[in-house]
Design a protein that fits this description.
Blueprint (H helix, E strand, L loop, with lengths): L4 H8 L3 E8 L2 E7 L7 E5 L4 E7 L8 E6 L4 E7 L5 E5 L2 H6 L12 H9 L5 H6 L9 H11 L12 H20 L41 E5 L2 E5 L10
This protein binds a DNA duplex (16 and 16 nucleotides) through loops.
Length: 245
DNA sequence: AGTCTATCCTGCCGGC
DNA sequence: TGCCGGCAGGATAGAC
């Protein structure tokens, strides 16, 4: 979308796909090509993007933006209703990957690291967690859920998060992501689908996200919705105080 | 440097 | 009924 389609095609024709990796929310297709051509195809689904392989000659998906014929008879299809997604050729995928923060399910993401990293900045904790260069892979839904689980108000200054609260937050982030992956994602708005075309199941486990005015599952106080950094933000005013313990 | 704000895009929902 | 304004959100460019 918006790029130079001709150059995109020129860089891909004849390229061989090597490893396929994920880093944060990015999908990386390493390309085995020589002579200075782009070395990786980088994809991002953003809100509504979908990638799938359909039989060559089959009907394009409703909002197909890119179709790439593969040599095994399939067609790689990138479909995106809102055109927020990206599919870009880059020379060095490690450049992009290196700019991202640690993987929240990786070994380096733990309570001690998180506490130190939070205290190295002075920013509201929610926008910081959404910053992909701080931690890679967290989106709006899971940040709201993690902050609730940790009992942290979304506007808490990052350098005021206590050691104990940072430990709760690290546990919450890992637990929620692990559970959400088990349930194959969150499909509350009808957009997100698994590669098999089925909705995920985590939406039924959401405790604050999209639950404004509904009772908190812990204390029954009405869940509040505010806007933080242009993002809808949901929290329990009783369970998530501004001062962390 | 670090932090904040506007922008992209379109299907859906609520209000009149 | 039908129309239309407003809302949702990840990343990024540009502003301060």
């Amino acid at each position: 979308v918006g790029g130079d389609a001709r150059a995109f095609a020129r860089g891909l024709v004849g390229a061989r796909v090597g490893a396929i990796r994920r880093r944060g929310k990015f999908l990386l297709f390493d390309l085995d090509v020589a002579d200075g051509r782009p070395a990786a195809l980088v994809g991002h689904l953003r809100m509504t993007g979908r990638m799938q392989v359909r039989p060559r000659g089959s009907a394009p998906t409703p909002h197909e933006c890119v179709a790439l014929d593969l040599d095994d008879g399939g067609t790689f299809s990138f479909d995106d209703v809102r055109k927020f997604g990206r599919l870009v050729l880059v020379g060095d995928a490690d450049e992009l990957v290196g700019a991202l923060g640690p993987e929240p399910l990786g070994a380096s993401f733990d309570a001690a690291w998180l506490h130190a990293a939070l205290h190295a900045r002075r920013r509201a904790v929610k926008p910081l967690l959404l910053d992909q260069t701080f931690v890679a892979g967290l989106g709006n839904i899971y940040v709201d859920e993690a902050l609730f689980e940790a009992g942290l108000h979304p506007l808490t200054p990052s350098n005021r998060v206590s050691t104990r609260a940072a430990a709760r937050l690290a546990d919450a982030v890992r637990g929620i992501l692990t559970r959400a992956i088990e349930r194959r994602g969150t499909s509350f708005d009808g957009f997100y689908r698994t590669p098999e075309g089925r909705p995920g199941g985590y939406q039924s486990e959401l405790k604050v996200y999209d639950r404004a005015q509904e009772p908190c599952v812990v204390c029954a106080a009405p869940i509040r919705r505010i806007v933080v950094g242009q993002r809808g933000t949901h929290f329990c005013p009783k369970c998530q105080r501004r001062i962390s313990r």
